[in-house]
Amino acid sequence: MELVQTVNLHSWYVQQLAHFTWNLTEKIAAKDILQSAIGQIVNTNLPLFQNECEALTASQLNLLLAIVKGEQSLTASAVMNKYGLGTPQNVSKNKLRLQKRDLIDKTPEGFVFLDPVFERWFISEYAH
Q: What domains can be seen in the chain, in order of their start residue?
């Protein structure tokens, strides 16, 4: 169950994580093996993640950072100033662009990353 939850039920990553975990396991898939398998998934997808971020503007990257930091009111003055998001119109435009790129989605709780492994990598690269 932990394997499935680690990748937020994302079917493609569940399969990848199960595969890498299986290859690393001799008898029992302990947490350290699961973490190593996650590292392999990140490394496998690293070029894709890097290319995706290179294609984004600074304000789009900053918007992703605000989302990953749990900001809910993305057009609040304090949030826009803290993350350099520009104007409310710019925030709205960037939210739509990031949604069209399938990077984020709107949920009742706010915006979330669609790709849990990309989110994990993004946090390690941009939110440290």
A: 2-53 (no CATH), 57-126 (1.10.10)
Walk along the chain (128 residues) in steps of 10 and give the mean pLDDT of each run. Answer: 71 78 77 84 94 97 97 95 97 97 94 94 92
Can you tell me the distance from the alpha carbon of 114 to that of 98, in angstroms, rounded to the nearest whole number? 10
What tokens does 28 get? 């029992």
Tell me the three state secondary structure of residue 10: coil
Give the whole-angstrom CA distance, residue 123 versus residue 90: 23
The C-alpha atoms of residue 111 and residue 12 are separated, in whole angstroms, by: 21
The pTM score is: 0.86
